[in-house]
Fold:
Amino acid sequence: MAMTFETMKAYLKFQFGNRTDLESVDSTDLYGVWINMAYKNLTTRNRFWAVKKSFKFPELIVTDVSQSTTDGTAYVSVPTDAIAVYNVQDTTNDRDLDYIKINKYFAYTDRSNTDAEGEPNEYSRSDEYIYLHPTPDDTYALEILYRKRPAVLSGTATTVIGDEWDDAILALACFIGFSWTHEYEKAKERKDEFIGLVSGLIGIYDTEEKTSGETLHANPSGKDYGFS
Structure:
């Protein structure tokens, strides 16, 4: 059974000798901060020390079908929880739009020409917008495939990535916490624990690797000592 956020905080507090002073630092509960930092780092970063993580959590790959184009408007909004946009489909015409780099889009001289509007066949992302080319001449329903940022944990909430990752999140939260309190030997122990836990989860996704080509890779050199 997946641990709730409150349970994770209780376990983390136990790791710190049930220190109560860390629950009210400038009116902030650091145990909760460290849990959420670990959760965010695990689900958004690509590398942790000796473990190179190029795997995309399936639970975080979602689609947004709430948007459609507007005649004469060259863009739609990126979903607010999106980290990366993977594909845009015009579901009205049942076709995928081709991705182009943003500099190519802005190089189009007809992008602001109302006489050059049509059915979009290309897209590019810049900040909070997905730009379409040609500029739409009508309303077309869109399906946006993207990787989302998980919501901040609170109360009785659980993670969306599966309870098999709970121990790894706790180990990483311990590392962060002991680093903040300058207990570096304990931090190193938790770092090693985290690496072992994540590396041990690699095999779970072996079958998906055959089709997606994405997985977790243990880096035996272990020379990357920071997040990147």
Summary: The longest helix spans residues 184-200. DSSP finds six helices and eleven strands in the chain.
